[in-house]
Each structure stands twice: as structure tokens, then as C-alpha cells.
Amino acid sequence: MQANERQAGTSPSVTNGWDAVCAMDANAINAILLQQYLELHPDASAMHLRAVVDGSDGNLWILDLTLGPPRVQFHDLPSDSDQCEVTLVIVTGSLFRFDGFKGDIAYEIKIAPDTSFLRGALDLTKVTGDVDKLGEVVLDLGRAAYAPKIQGVDPDSTLSSNIGDAIVAFFKYRDTRYSIGKIVASPQPGGLQPTSFEISTQSTGDGTGDGCVLLLIKTDGAGGKRGSITPYPIPKDCTAALIVSDRTVFQSVFPTYLSKLFKSLGVVFSGVQSPTTGSWSTQGNGGAFDFGVFDAGQGVTTIITSSDSDGNTAPIKIPITGFTVAFNDNQVSVSWTRNWQQYFSVYNSASKGGPSVRSTHIDFGYSRRAAPHIDPVTDDVTFDTLSETVDCRNPDPPHWWDITGSSIKLPDVVRKTIQASVGASLKGFSLPDVNTFALANLLFPSRHVLELTRASVPCDIVLTGQMAMPITVTPTQVKLTAGKSQRFSVASGSASVDIEWMLGPGGRGTIDANGNYTAPPTIDRGEVVIVNAIDKTNATHVGRAMVWLYSATADGALAIVPATQAVTPGAEAFFKVEDTSGTEVSADCTLEPNVGTLVYSKAERTWGYQAPASATADWPVTITVTARPTTGGSSTAIGTIVLMPTVATLSITPAQSTVRPGGTIELTAQGADGLQWAANIGDIAPTTSDGTRAVYTAPTTTAGGPTNVVVVAYCSRESLSAASATITIQSAS
């Protein structure tokens, strides 16, 4: 059952005791994460991982990976789980096998696009917090346990496990967090002032969609229990929902609003819970509507006025006690009924003694029905009147006109007065505080706001809509090969904005004034380009999209895995021939040009390529590997092996050094430039443009005694080489 399908008015609140619940589905969260990624990392540097890991065979591996934005989903997890599943695609990158015996790189695996990713479960309960303290809901990427799926790496191997550990360490050291949203305090009424919150997740329940995150918000209530929202809170055509509980509305919000509205009448409103259904309403107590003294007119000998039972002149009053506001049949229902014995004092000058007192029974009823609505201009929740009835009757004799003989119609006076006062007051009945609550208390990154477009009141106030930005670029992500083009545009909501199109720092390719992007004519390896759509009248309003650039690969029934490798003199590289399902295929493989040796190992079910023992002057040399199935047919697979020279003189000084926890040390590389640096523990970053100098920073804490760190400087453009150094982190004293 989807949102709002519950039979209105027949069930208590669905918020499980929470004062409000904000639900965001995976699409909304992933849109926030993508824009955050593009805003915070315009060159993807903060998601560029370089690390050294142990391959468990005496060799080290250098990881050089650029990760895409995190994506979350919940459909593969149990409902009411505290976790989400996080996936990070490897946009581009390489794995270098560092031969510990040669002290240099043996070969490089270049990761093809759309082939490799990281996936892990993240426990959201670890990032909950109290308002104004830890009130931000974040994805702490350092808290997940990742299972890498990298083309060319056995997912069950020690290397794969160590890569997962290195990625966690990378995120932990940099405290890499992505914000989903923040709950903050603001000058709101008590019922709409968050004091704490918890986080939960929920699947759709019907096997479709990726589920949602639930922000379980406590304001002035007692707090609730964890559990799924039934029915699923977000309709299929929406990405977000805000549910304000009936208790919050009727006990905390409406009483304040109505008490101010009827202040001059002396009525005080409060919340009342039904002992049978558990649902809430707001009811008035005390006060009365004063119609003044009813004067039927004076005859020659007779005076007739409204009075009390003793004949004392008194105004006609309708007590407001029992004035009730509730939700019924998905509408706001206002009801107010009273019945009383009305007394009249009849004074006849011809009669001796005081006036005679006569009375009649009067029934009064007021009802109003209104439908919830989101004001398209203010986004406030308003209630549009569907019907209004004021009924005032004198059903049983003696009738009032028999007593008063007046031409003044008492029921008409009551009806007109109530409509002019109560009806007019309720005509503009709205809840602007709910929209203010959404905008002021629920804050989202990258200028996202909860844009509410539909309202219903099955029991709680249910508001649904989308996560929106000032400018939304479509498409948000696209993959292009060399020379290809893509037209970007802004979504209809921001179509009237005057846009300036620009590429992010270092972005290759071109974009014109109309949003037409063209990829560069050549692409050597995968990279990310960020497209910015900037409001010319307000530069803080920016929409962003991501272009993944990659070199074209063959698309067929067979594949060589990994498709592209680089090999140094005398080293071996390994690959398999697989079909589209990843199953090995028996094939014959050839080289063009026929340089080096190609051997198939039945035991390993792997092809091995042995590079020549020494490089020649024409290296780098690109060799095309062609695989054809032994069973015949026209299918072929194409792979590439690049023979790369090495730099024998590459070295690092100091080769050995010590540092205290949290300390730093500068390292220098000689023999090559265009260097990158990596370490298996801590962090290292180049300090010169050619990469020949770098500073290593040790972690502030280490396990046990002294810890040995391996630092590597490497190059992979014109040559494929690496050098290593050892740093010992001393024990903390």
C-alpha cells in the first residue's frame, strides 16, 4: 500500500509516537549526494584515493583510484534496519603491482569504465545526534566495510579484502562525510521545535524502489518507537514526505492558533485524545459568544427581553465549550453544537407584580468542512472551505415567536452573526508554521529544500513533494567518449532563469552558451568533468551535472578482463576471456605486433603474457590482443597491452626515517618527475608541481609498538616506475 491510501479518519497516527517524520527516498538522497560531490570536489580530488596495500604474495599493490559520488539504497536490507547500502563507482584508476624483489612496478591494470565499484553497509545509527549538537545526518564513509568489485581482482582474494581496508582507512583519515540533512533549532512554537531525533530506514515493502530514510523527530512530545511507517510514506511520483502527527497538530499547534483567534471570547483550546481510537482533536473550553440582550420591541403595555430564569434582563450567549476541530474523511472538520433553554422576561404594565418568565428550547449547530491545500505562492498549508452550515432552531413549542411576537428572526440573527464572525475567522485558516518548520528546521546541503506540493489529512498532516534546488540541470550524469556531445538544460522550474554555462576547474572539452557540451577529441583515461549552470542574477544559485569521459571499448559477446594493462620489461601480466555473464570462455589469443610470449595456464585458467626482458628505443609499444572462441563463430574480444620502459635511477631520500605519531617528514624523489605518492598508513601529499617533493603525515594514534610505513613514489605516463622508502612511527610515550 502506498502513501495516502489508508482509509482516512479510521486509524490513529502512523508516526509511531514521533511528533514528526521526514521521509526521503533514495532518489532524493542520491540527488543531494551528487550535488554535494560536485560542489565540494570540483576536480574529484577529495575522492581520489592513492594507497599502498599488501598483496599477501610478497608484493605490494599501489591503488590510484578516482571514486564517483556515493549512492545509497535500502531495498536489499530488512525493513526498519539502521543501515543503508552505499555504492561508489570507480570512475577511473589503476592498480600497480610493485615487485618487492625488483623494487619496481611489474605491471599496471587500468580500470575500464562501468566495470568496478565499492559496496558496503553503513550503520546510520552511528551518526545520529541531538539538535544543536550532532544534529546532522551524515554518511560517514569511514564507517562502512567495503567489498570491492574490481575488474581483474578476485573478489575473494586477500588483495580484495586489503583494498577494502585501505579504502576505509582513506575515508577515516580524511573524515570523509556526506551530509544528508540537518535538524536545527529555530524560533518555532513548542510543538514544532525539534529537541531530538533518531534515524531509521525503510524498504518500500512491495519490492519496487530503493526505500527511504526516516528522520524521527521529537518536539514537545514523549518520543516514539522505531518501526516502519504504514503505509509507505512517499507516493511513487514523489521523493519526499513530511508527516506531522495528529498529537502535535491538535495538542500543540491548533490550540495556540485557535486560542489567539478566539481570544476576545474568552475560550481556551486544548488537545483531547479519544480513548477509543487514540486519535486527537482540539476542543474549546469556557467562553461564550455574546449576542447581547434580545429586545423583542416595546408595545403600549408590554416589554419583552431575553432574561435569566429569574426574569432578570440578560444577553443571549452560546457557550463555546465543545467547539471541536478534527480530521475526518481526509478533511478538516469543525463542529460546534449547543442546546439550551432560553428565557424571556415579559412585563405587562396592566399586570400587578413583576414580569412573567417564559422559556423555549433552542438547538444550535455549526459545522465546517475544509480540504488541505498547499498554497502555490507561499507553500503554506491552507484549508479551503468546502462547506459551512449554521443551524439555529426552535423545534418544540412554545416557539420563540409565540412568546415574543417579534418580527425579528432570532435564528437568522444567530446565523448571520456566527457566519460574519466565526466563519470569516476560519476562512483564512492555515498552518504557515508547518511550512516554516520544514524550511527552518530541516536543512539540506547544496540549497536543496523540501518542496511540498500535496497535502492530505488522513489522521496526521501528510505533506508530499520533491527535494528541489534553485537550478536543476538535466541530465545530471552522462558518459561520453572522445568527440561526443551532450545538450544540457535546466529543469522547467528554473527554465526562465538567465543561465551562464561553465566547466569546472580543469574540465576538458567545451560548452557553449546554450549548454551544448563536446568532449575532447582524445581521451587517454577516464576523467570527470563538471558542468555548472550559474544564475547570472544570483551567482550563489548553481546547478551542476557530471560528465564521465572515457575511451571507447569494444561492446560484444566476449571480453578480455582486464581489457588494458601496462607491463615493464621482463614482467608478466594476466588476463581472462569471459562472456557477458563473467563466465570463462575457451579462446585462442593472438598478439599484434607479436612481441613477447603468450601462454595459457589450464591450472589457473588464465592467460599469461611475458614481456621482453629489456626495453627497446621504440617503447612504449601498444600490443593488441585478439581473442576468438575455440568453438568458432564471429565473436571476438580486443584487449590492449602497453610495453612501458622503467626509470632505473628513481629513488627516495631519506630511504629510512622515523617520525612521532601525528608528526610530519619531508621526502624527496630523484630520477623522474610527474610523480605521485602513496602510503599504506597515514597520508602523503606532493608539495611541488612535478611531484618530486612530498610531506608525509603520520596518524595520531597507532596500534601497539613502533609501526613501519611503506611510502612509494611512482610515475605512469612516459614510463612505469616506482621507488619505496620506509618510515617508522615511534611508540607514543
Q: How many DSSP helices?
A: 6
Distance between the termini: 61 Å
Q: Characterize the largest beta sheet: strand count, sense, and whether it forms a barrel.
A: 11 strands, mixed
Helix content: 10-25%
Structural commentary:
It is a single chain. The relative contact order is 0.11. Strands 2, 3, 4, 5, 6, 7, 9, 38, 40, 43 and 44 form an eleven-stranded mixed sheet that branches. Strands 14, 15, 17, 18, 20, 21, 22, 23 and 24 form a nine-stranded antiparallel sheet that branches. This protein has six helices and 52 strands. The protein is elongated and about 140 Å long. Mean pLDDT is 87; it is low at 1-10 and 128-134. 11% of the residues lie in helices and 45% in strands. It folds into five domains: 30-123 and 141-176, no CATH class; 250-430, no CATH class; 473-549, Immunoglobulin-like (Sandwich), CATH 2.60.40; 558-643, Sandwich (Immunoglobulin-like), CATH 2.60.40.1080; 651-729, Immunoglobulin-like, CATH 2.60.40.10. The protein is mainly beta and 733 residues long.
Features:
11% helix, 5 domains, mainly beta, Immunoglobulin-like, 45% strand, 733 residues, 9-stranded antiparallel sheet, 11-stranded mixed sheet
Would you summarize the structure shown here?
This protein has 733 residues and is mostly beta strands.
Helix and strand layout, with pairings?
Layout: E1 20-25, H1 26-40, E2 48-54, E3 60-67, E4 71-73, E5 83-99, E6 104-110, E7 117-123, E8 136-140, E9 145-149, H2 158-173, E10 177-183, E11 196-202, E12 212-218, E13 240-244, H3 246-261, E14 268-273, E15 280-285, E16 288-290, E17 295-298, E18 302-307, E19 317-319, E20 324-328, E21 331-348, E22 356-374, E23 381-393, H4 400-404, H5 410-427, E24 430-431, H6 432-441, E25 442-443, E26 449-456, E27 461-468, E28 473-474, E29 477-480, E30 485-487, E31 489-490, E32 499-503, E33 510-511, E34 516-518, E35 527-535, E36 538-549, E37 558-561, E38 564-567, E39 572-579, E40 587-592, E41 597-601, E42 606-610, E43 621-629, E44 637-643, E45 651-653, E46 656-659, E47 664-670, E48 676-679, E49 683-686, E50 693-697, E51 707-715, E52 721-729
